[in-house]
User: Fold this.
Amino acid sequence: MAAGVNKVILVGNLGKDPEVRHLEGGTTVARFTLATNDYYKDKSGNRVERTEWHNVALWRDLAEVAEKYLRKGQQVYLEGRIRTRQYQDKDNQTRYITEIVAEELTMLGGRPQADQQAEPVTDAAAPEAQTFRQEPELDQLPF
Assistant:
């Protein structure tokens, strides 16, 4: 029996700066929304733009890259997988969230303009079009 495939590739713009948390044990997680645009023609022949919003999570090293370099409006290329998780809200209702867990990140289009976005937290220049990959944990290996 063959295993299933859960693969997502997205190119879009960050809807907000990454929200970064440092969990117990030193694990870092960054979360943000990513907008992708789709274009089509309606019945009248007018071009229509549709924006789809994706929840994105980056872990460990990728989260640290996001914390240093990613800002609202930046264009990125992501590869990862879809994950749906559940949690209890403040009213004890079960809620579900579907998110993209990124395993590869490439920053596209350079840094945002200084008059449009805040400068990165670090003094180092953001690497342009450099790809970062999340190395799998030993318990994630298929053998």
About this structure: Residues 60-69 form the longest helix (10 residues).
